[in-house]
Amino acid sequence: MNETQKIDWKTQGVKVIPGSSLDTNTPQTPGMNRAAAINYARVGAQKIWAGTVSICANAKTGAHHHGSLESVIYVIRGKARMRWGDHLEFVAEAEAGDFIYVPPYVPHQEINASESERLECVLVRSDNEAVVVNLDIAPVEKPEAVYWVDPIHKAPT
Question: 55, 66, 61: which is closest to 121 by C-alpha?
Fold first, then answer.
């Protein structure tokens, strides 16, 4: 861009999207409600999609994946139980304040682990459009618990 080209920062700058103005016209998975806040159509986002996810108490989604996209889920309220794998054979839980990372193509299912409280999360994906591929998976009855383990955080005994 040369010096004679000026950017109209009023229309091309920061955008504030009110929580009451989210768009539910986005790909859905049975058992959850997704609403878009940030995407190409709404704000011109080039590399991210962001919105909210809500799951009723004691409910679960169908199995699905998000193609080549990476997803980050931040739990605002409630307790999430995530199952993943070819037969949803792995499980981990997250609560308010926790982040969940879902790599590309990972078959997964979100479960609200609370019998009384709604699960509410913020979701961010690595592209400007929502990709959802719903799957027909027969889950194992007893998934294997997986815990966050790194050099600082050891597995529970």
Answer: 55
Nearest C-alpha neighbor of 105 from the set 126, 74, 120: 126
Average pLDDT over residues 36-53: 93
State how far the Cα of 95 lies from the Cα of 150, in Å rounded to an integer.
19
Find tokens 């091309």 and name the residue.
12
**Residue 136 backbone zone (phi > 0: left; psi -120 to 50: alpha; other: beta):** beta
DSSP the chain: --TT----HHHHS-----GGG-B--S---TT-EEEEEESHHHH--SS-EEEEEEE-TT-BPPPEE-TT--EEEEEEESEEEEEESTTS-EEEEEETT-EEEE-TT--EEEEE--SSS-EEEEEEESSSS---EE------SSPEE----SSSSPPP-
Q: Given this model, what pLDDT does residue 112 score?
A: 96
Which has more pLDDT, 86 or 148? 86
CB atoms within 10 A of CB 4: 5
Mean pLDDT of 99-120: 96
